[in-house]
């Protein structure tokens, strides 16, 4: 039977490769700016708190826009939604690269976040729909694109940042412009969905106790996630963008491998809630150790890289839970979850910058550890709402790919 054939990654329509390329570049944006944060602060005369607003504006708008992506894609179709997202990223990434003040970059990053939300909300469905006779292989390709983008984003940011802090922004704009042209010319027009989505649907979905428990857990967990991602470049005291890029390259490799390889195996063996509880405790411990040894560069480097493992496992399994614990459609559940979790990241980046500026270098990591532990308590208190009737999406399935996308992007 055809279902038993080994899928080929290479035998895909050119449209699949176009979307996969765009996905790589989009996922690069997760860690692209980390290596250049100290350079931006130094050359534009900005404080840590002001510089970390780059994350706050980006994540805040991304979260809010998640309430709109279903409404947009259900009315205009996936291709137009993808192209709109890519166009916004091109424009606002280029504007960020040409900015003359930290305030301008913060504003342009907000526009970038809007574009990214439109892209990541529709990329999976598009690449699977464009596959011809090889859906499973297309999904594997998509997951590979995600991992490649997460891992190489900080490295590319560091290399371009050696030339100028503007380099990563212009580099992203150029690559996304290529992706825009490729999708415009190579991807066939996609039909509009039969059912239109309302902006209110994701908010209504949060009434379900299981989905609400997972969303609040993710909100608190992201206090730690984005404290690590946003504040560590300042705490490390590394001035070279390339060296910073290598640190976060190691983090990205660990996160990508844990998401794709480790998470499904752990969940199958121990179950979703126990694994999430374990990795939350492990991540809180890493942040606590970094708070205690904040002046040890070696500890911070090792802690940052190792943290990618629990982060990758947690991102995947928590987002799989999102799609299983409630009866609402998966797209709506994902939008609701993303809305809540990205707002947690936006607040965390702002709070970490303020604490690091006003108090001490260890206080942001302490805040992150407390936030993750609070998320663990919420998970344990609401675990009775997290029972699901199966072991979760299979490896290489559209459901797992969706979990990886929303969890990591």
Explained architecture:
With 409 residues, the chain is mostly helical. The protein starts with 13 loop residues before the first helix and ends with a helix. It is 78% helix and 0% strand. The model has no long low-confidence stretch (mean pLDDT 84).
Helix and strand layout, with pairings?
Layout: H1 14-28, H2 37-44, H3 48-51, H4 53-76, H5 78-97, H6 102-130, H7 135-163, H8 167-186, H9 201-205, H10 209-236, H11 241-270, H12 272-292, H13 297-322, H14 330-358, H15 363-381, H16 398-408
What class, by secondary structure content?
A: mainly alpha
Instruction: Supply Rg.
Output: 20 Å
Largest sheet: none
Mean pLDDT: 84
Summarize the amount of helix as a percent range.
Answer: over 70%
Query: Tell me, what's the shape?
Result: globular
Topology pattern, helix = H, strand = E:
HHHHHHHHHHHHHHHH
């Amino acid at each position: 039977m055809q279902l038993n054939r080994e899928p080929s990654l290479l035998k895909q329509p050119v449209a699949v490769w176009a979307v996969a390329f765009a996905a790589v570049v989009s996922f690069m944006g997760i860690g692209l700016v980390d290596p250049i944060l100290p350079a931006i602060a130094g050359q534009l005369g900005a404080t840590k708190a002001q510089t970390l607003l780059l994350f706050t504006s980006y994540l805040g708008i991304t979260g809010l826009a998640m309430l709109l992506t279903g409404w947009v894609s259900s009315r205009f179709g996936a291709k137009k939604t993808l192209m709109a997202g890519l166009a916004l990223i091109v424009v606002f990434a280029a504007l960020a690269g040409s900015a003359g003040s930290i305030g301008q970059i913060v504003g342009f990053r907000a526009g970038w976040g809007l574009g990214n939300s439109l892209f990541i909300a529709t990329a999976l469905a598009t690449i699977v729909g464009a596959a011809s006779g090889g859906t499973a292989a297309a999904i594997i390709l998509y997951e590979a694109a995600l991992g490649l983008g997460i891992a190489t984003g900080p490295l590319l940011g560091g290399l371009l940042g050696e030339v100028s802090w503007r380099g990563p922004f212009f580099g992203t704009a150029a690559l996304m412009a290529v992706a825009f042209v490729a999708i415009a010319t190579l991807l066939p027009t996609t039909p509009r969905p039969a059912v239109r989505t309302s902006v209110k649907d994701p908010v209504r979905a949060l009434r379900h106790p299981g989905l609400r428990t997972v969303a609040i857990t993710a909100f608190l967990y992201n206090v730690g996630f984005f404290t690590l991602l946003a504040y560590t470049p300042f705490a490390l005291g590394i001035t070279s963008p390339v060296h910073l890029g290598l640190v976060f390259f190691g983090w990205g490799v660990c996160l990508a491998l844990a998401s794709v390889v480790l998470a499904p195996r752990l969940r199958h063996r121990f179950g979703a809630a126990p694994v999430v509880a374990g990795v939350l405790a492990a991540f809180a411990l890493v942040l606590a150790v970094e708070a205690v040894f904040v002046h040890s560069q070696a500890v911070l480097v090792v802690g940052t890289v190792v943290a990618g493992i629990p982060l990758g496992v947690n991102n995947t399994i928590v987002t799989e839970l999102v799609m299983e614990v409630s009866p609402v459609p998966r797209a709506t559940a994902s939008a609701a979850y993303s809305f809540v979790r990205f707002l947690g990241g936006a607040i965390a980046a702002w709070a970490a910058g303020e604490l690091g500026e006003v108090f001490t270098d260890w206080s942001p990591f302490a805040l992150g550890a407390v936030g993750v532990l609070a998320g663990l308590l919420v998970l344990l208190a609401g675990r009775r709402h997290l029972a699901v009737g199966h072991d979760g999406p299979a490896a290489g399935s559209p459901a797992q790919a969706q979990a990886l996308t929303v969890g990591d992007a």
